[in-house]
Amino acid sequence: AEMLVGMKQGDDKIDKWLASGNKPINGWNVSSLLGDEAFFNGDWLMRSGAAKAGLYGNDAAEAMYPFTRTDASGKPLDGSKHKYTITFPPGQLPPVHSFWSVTMYDGKSQFLVKNPINRYLINSPMLPGMKKNEDGSLTLYIQKDSPGADKEANWLPAPDGTIYLVMRLYWPKTEAPSILPAGKGTWQPPGVKRVS
User: Fold this and answer.
1) Global pTM exceeds 0.90
2) CA-CA distance, 53 to 57, in Å (whole number)?
3) I want to staple 22 with a disulfide (CB 3.0 to 4.6 A). Which of 13, 29, 114, 118 is the partner?
4) Domain 58-194 is of which CATH architecture?
């Protein structure tokens, strides 16, 4: 019984540390929790938090992983109740040397969401097939049902319940605009906007 209590206390301590290491930006949590042995420098709480947040994840120079469970106003994302959009303004797609993606997960299980078009993410290689708005911005549609044939190329199917989104930015640029340094960069992920 004491071991179970100790495990719960340890897990609570890790969760508290994780929450303090994230900077909220437009509803996204931005942090740099991962690195090599020198980065952790014997800090076992940091190492445990990094393992829980993203075991085997890359350090900030290789990838950044903004994530969210809320819209830009801080309300929980829920595909059973609402439809959402993410709009990248003209010329403000994620600034990376490699590629970026936005991946949809079930908010409870954190598993990928089974859906009729077998789409689990939207990423930069998909850009040629996507539709930009008249002003050059790019809107992603986050909802459980199709937004219509004219918008389906930009649709990321959501679960019929809570949503967990992760943006992956591989080899982020260091010159402006940049998400680096983590939480202080000149580029910020756009908020998830509730549209209905």
Assistant:
1) no
2) 9
3) 29
4) Sandwich (2.60)
